[in-house]
Amino acid sequence: MDIMGFLRQRAGDFRCPVCRRSLADCELRQLAHQGPHYTVQVTCRHCSMAFLVALEVQGGGATEADTKERDPISADELLELHRQLADYEGPLTALLEPRQSRD
Predict the structure, then answer these.
(1) How do residues 2-39 score in pLDDT, each as one tens digit?
(2) Alpha-carbon distance values, 92 to 16, 17, 26, 82 (Å)
(3) Fold that domain 3-56 belongs to in CATH
(4) Which of 2, 52, 1 is nearest to 26 (CA)?
(5) 3-state DSSP assignment of residue 66
(6) What is the pLDDT of residue 69?
(7) pTM
(8) Where in the chain are the domains?
């Protein structure tokens, strides 16, 4: 992941804590990077206020199946699920447990 590119893209969403102007054109300098941890110095181009941002990136191991867009559940699917569960008596957790093979 290009963390500096990501921060440059998102910088405009934030405002300087001193002059309150957009940080869209701020200066970014990566000071440290160890594993998922980053330390970045952000300097406002308008007032020269500099501050440090500590980041921890999570979930870098997403698979293609995790990132594919899925269709929302249709009304028909929801009605079918309701029909199948209408006579069920028992705890919800039992439905979520893996089934034991019956060999």
Answers:
(1) 889 989 999 999 999 999 999 999 999 999 998 889 99
(2) 49, 48, 51, 13
(3) N-terminal domain of TfIIb (2.20.25)
(4) 52
(5) helix
(6) 66
(7) 0.54
(8) 3-56
